[in-house]
What does this fold into?
Amino acid sequence: MNSASKKAKFPIFRSLLVLILGLGIWQSWFWWQRVNAPVLGAKGTNISAKPTQFTVSSGTPGQQIGRELAKAGLISSTDAWKLWVWWRQKQDPQGGFKAGTYLISPQDSLATIADKIWRGELMQTTFTIPEGWSIREMANYFESIGYFSADDFVAAASKIDYDKYPWLPANLPHLEGFLYPDTYKITSDRINNPQAIIEVMLTQFQQDALPVYQQAQTQLSLMEWVTLASIVEKESVVGEERRLIAGVFTSRLQRGMRLESDPTVEYALGIKQTADRPLTYKQVGTPAPHNTYVNTGLPPTPIASPGLASLKATLNPESTDYLFFVARYDGTHVFSKTLAEHVAATKRIRRERQQRN
It folds into this structure.
């Protein structure tokens, strides 16, 4: 081949090479734009007006996840999704998409969404258990927010995992009192699993409450401590009275007196008294293991989950000569040293309430 022919072919070759490279760069740029741009509607607005929950079931193939995302309007191109999956698997052959529920924002690009599911950045949610709630109240709450049925939670709270929590008292019939009240942030893979929720709460008790008991000098067993604290929790409304109420109950126990605590009757009978409908003599006289009007000493189990303040107050009760107290219905109580003073205070408070009504 002569030099003239070579010179004629080289420009064509260079042009084809530039064209191929340019096409590749353009395709890469186009794919990158598809992957990294948020999903837009016909008029340039986001299809999803607010963050959307998207659930990936265990074992779902990557391409099916893409199809479901596209169906939900969360990505605009399944082709771009396929390319991303191919590229990610090359980069991380040991990785994979994680099952669970994710919160997808309208501003999330395909790459952001895919990365989130690949890394398992599950949606987080919070739930709050107030001090003084019983297992049944917790169960009803979880059912009301759609986690699981109340009966499933009650059943799970009757399974005692001594292998994982060997510090729990022996022969527990259920976990009443040991499910620590707090605000919790959990990932979405736990919201349908009552056992997982229980483990979170037991672990919090182990971290926050158990060291308080272990470092204290007390003759109370762990079971007695939590049980007495649960009664103090239910009786205390004003924080300033907490140690005094603990002192009254401690004094009654030391003297062999019945505690005669209304919340124990409510727990025993599954009822709730109000200011207008207080407990009746028949109710407080009903035989039941948890009824401290009938039985001497502490109930067989706690009646609710005490908070840290009540747990601490029970370990450090106020020294007092008071043996009785009655609610004023404003959160405070009138404390008395004798039964006669207590009866008089009770009549006076009820009379004043009737006059106001």
The longest helix spans residues 3-36. Residues 3-10, 15-35, 39-48 have pLDDT under 50 and may be disordered. Residues 219-356 form one domain.
